[in-house]
User: Which sequence fits this backbone?
Protein backbone atom coordinates (compact mmCIF):
# COMPACT_ATOMS: atom_id res chain seq x y z
CA UNK A 1 0.00 0.00 0.00
CA UNK A 2 1.47 3.31 -1.07
CA UNK A 3 0.96 6.17 1.28
CA UNK A 4 2.13 9.73 0.91
CA UNK A 5 1.57 12.10 3.80
CA UNK A 6 -1.43 14.43 3.78
CA UNK A 7 0.93 17.39 3.97
CA UNK A 8 2.73 16.25 0.84
CA UNK A 9 -0.52 15.73 -1.04
CA UNK A 10 -1.73 19.17 0.09
CA UNK A 11 1.49 20.71 -1.15
CA UNK A 12 1.21 18.96 -4.50
CA UNK A 13 -2.37 20.20 -4.81
CA UNK A 14 -1.47 23.76 -3.93
CA UNK A 15 1.50 23.82 -6.32
CA UNK A 16 -0.61 22.60 -9.26
CA UNK A 17 -3.18 25.28 -9.96
CA UNK A 18 -6.28 23.56 -11.29
CA UNK A 19 -6.89 26.19 -13.98
CA UNK A 20 -3.30 25.81 -15.25
CA UNK A 21 -3.52 22.04 -15.31
CA UNK A 22 -6.95 21.80 -16.94
CA UNK A 23 -5.96 24.45 -19.51
CA UNK A 24 -3.50 21.91 -20.88
CA UNK A 25 -6.45 19.68 -21.83
CA UNK A 26 -9.45 21.98 -22.23
CA UNK A 27 -9.82 25.42 -23.76
CA UNK A 28 -11.18 27.45 -20.85
CA UNK A 29 -12.96 30.76 -21.02
CA UNK A 30 -13.32 32.99 -18.01
CA UNK A 31 -16.85 33.78 -16.92
CA UNK A 32 -16.99 35.79 -13.73
CA UNK A 33 -15.09 33.94 -11.03
CA UNK A 34 -15.17 30.64 -12.91
CA UNK A 35 -13.84 29.15 -16.13
CA UNK A 36 -15.94 27.18 -18.62
CA UNK A 37 -15.01 24.79 -21.38
CA UNK A 38 -16.13 21.70 -23.27
CA UNK A 39 -16.12 18.69 -20.98
CA UNK A 40 -13.36 16.19 -21.85
CA UNK A 41 -15.38 13.38 -20.27
CA UNK A 42 -18.54 13.52 -22.36
CA UNK A 43 -19.50 14.80 -25.81
CA UNK A 44 -21.07 18.24 -25.79
CA UNK A 45 -21.42 21.28 -28.01
CA UNK A 46 -21.94 23.98 -25.42
CA UNK A 47 -19.57 24.24 -22.46
CA UNK A 48 -20.95 22.89 -19.21
CA UNK A 49 -17.58 22.02 -17.74
CA UNK A 50 -16.78 24.50 -14.99
CA UNK A 51 -13.52 25.16 -13.14
CA UNK A 52 -13.34 27.25 -9.99
CA UNK A 53 -9.98 28.92 -9.39
CA UNK A 54 -11.08 30.00 -5.90
CA UNK A 55 -12.13 26.55 -4.77
CA UNK A 56 -9.59 24.68 -6.92
CA UNK A 57 -12.23 22.24 -8.10
CA UNK A 58 -13.94 21.33 -11.36
CA UNK A 59 -17.49 20.24 -12.06
CA UNK A 60 -19.36 19.25 -15.17
CA UNK A 61 -23.03 20.19 -15.19
CA UNK A 62 -23.54 17.87 -18.15
CA UNK A 63 -22.25 14.53 -16.88
CA UNK A 64 -21.75 15.30 -13.22
CA UNK A 65 -18.02 14.57 -12.89
CA UNK A 66 -16.10 16.75 -10.50
CA UNK A 67 -13.31 16.94 -7.98
CA UNK A 68 -9.93 18.53 -7.42
CA UNK A 69 -6.84 18.66 -9.61
CA UNK A 70 -5.78 15.14 -8.58
CA UNK A 71 -9.17 13.70 -9.61
CA UNK A 72 -9.03 15.51 -12.92
CA UNK A 73 -5.55 14.30 -13.91
CA UNK A 74 -6.29 10.78 -12.73
CA UNK A 75 -9.44 10.68 -14.85
CA UNK A 76 -8.17 12.44 -17.96
CA UNK A 77 -4.84 10.55 -18.04
CA UNK A 78 -6.35 7.30 -16.80
CA UNK A 79 -3.81 7.01 -13.99
CA UNK A 80 -4.11 5.52 -10.52
CA UNK A 81 -3.64 7.68 -7.44
CA UNK A 82 0.09 6.98 -7.06
CA UNK A 83 0.79 7.68 -10.75
CA UNK A 84 -1.22 10.89 -10.59
CA UNK A 85 0.68 12.11 -7.53
CA UNK A 86 3.96 11.30 -9.27
CA UNK A 87 2.95 13.17 -12.39
CA UNK A 88 1.79 16.28 -10.50
CA UNK A 89 4.85 16.24 -8.24
CA UNK A 90 7.06 16.05 -11.30
CA UNK A 91 5.13 18.86 -12.98
CA UNK A 92 5.64 21.16 -10.00
CA UNK A 93 9.21 20.13 -9.18
CA UNK A 94 8.38 18.41 -5.91
CA UNK A 95 10.59 15.49 -4.99
CA UNK A 96 8.65 12.52 -3.67
CA UNK A 97 9.97 10.28 -0.94
CA UNK A 98 10.63 6.75 -2.10
CA UNK A 99 7.90 4.56 -0.66
CA UNK A 100 7.73 0.95 -1.79
CA UNK A 101 5.64 -0.56 0.94
CA UNK A 102 4.43 0.11 4.42
CA UNK A 103 7.29 -2.02 5.74
CA UNK A 104 9.88 0.16 4.06
CA UNK A 105 8.10 3.20 5.36
CA UNK A 106 8.45 1.93 8.93
CA UNK A 107 12.13 1.10 8.40
CA UNK A 108 12.72 4.58 7.01
CA UNK A 109 11.05 6.08 10.08
CA UNK A 110 13.15 3.92 12.38
CA UNK A 111 16.33 4.83 10.53
CA UNK A 112 15.67 8.53 10.84
CA UNK A 113 14.90 8.08 14.54
CA UNK A 114 18.15 6.20 15.15
CA UNK A 115 20.02 8.87 13.26
CA UNK A 116 18.42 11.54 15.43
CA UNK A 117 19.27 9.67 18.63
CA UNK A 118 22.88 9.28 17.49
CA UNK A 119 23.11 12.99 16.85
CA UNK A 120 21.70 13.88 20.25
CA UNK A 121 24.01 11.38 21.93
CA UNK A 122 27.05 12.71 20.07
CA UNK A 123 26.14 16.27 21.03
CA UNK A 124 25.65 15.25 24.63
CA UNK A 125 29.10 13.69 24.88
CA UNK A 126 30.68 16.48 22.91
CA UNK A 127 29.21 19.08 25.26
CA UNK A 128 30.24 17.13 28.32
CA UNK A 129 33.78 16.90 27.03
CA UNK A 130 34.02 20.69 26.95
CA UNK A 131 32.22 21.24 30.22
CA UNK A 132 35.23 21.76 32.45
CA UNK A 133 33.29 21.24 35.66
CA UNK A 134 32.57 17.60 34.99
CA UNK A 135 34.90 16.74 32.15
CA UNK A 136 38.32 16.95 33.75
CA UNK A 137 38.93 13.19 33.86
CA UNK A 138 37.64 12.77 30.31
CA UNK A 139 39.81 15.58 29.01
CA UNK A 140 42.83 14.12 30.70
CA UNK A 141 42.00 10.77 29.17
CA UNK A 142 41.67 12.18 25.65
CA UNK A 143 44.94 14.14 26.00
CA UNK A 144 46.79 11.08 27.24
CA UNK A 145 45.56 8.97 24.33
CA UNK A 146 46.84 11.55 21.84
ZN1 LIG B 1 -19.10 16.22 -18.65
Assistant:
Amino acid sequence: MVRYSDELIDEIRSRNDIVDVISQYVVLKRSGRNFFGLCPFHKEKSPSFCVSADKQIFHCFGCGVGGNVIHFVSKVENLNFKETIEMLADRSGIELPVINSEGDDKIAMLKSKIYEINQITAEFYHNNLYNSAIAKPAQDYVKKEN
The two ends are 53 Å apart (CA to CA). The helical segments are 6-15, 18-23, 69-77, 81-91, 102-129, 132-145. The chain is about 55% helix and 10% strand. The mean pLDDT is 87.
